[in-house]
Protein: Protein kinase A catalytic subunit isoform 2
Organism: Leptomonas seymouri
Amino acid sequence: MLSGGAADVKNHPYFHGANWDKLYARRYPAPIHVKVKSAGDTRNFENYPDSPVDRTPPLTSAQQAEFKEF
């Protein structure tokens, strides 16, 4: 399946009528126009709680001893 590479994708019925040259030249209009105020504007993203920085459990005494001379 898909042994023909990109040609298999381009010839798939789902993409029937797609103008690949226009797509390659980036001439299709964007389906969604997002408004941003600056490069750091994150209003269009979901808010997630801050993750804890340290997710690694601390070393046991035995594990720490392995690094004694390091």
Remarks:
- The chain has one domain: 4-66.
- The mean pLDDT is 89.
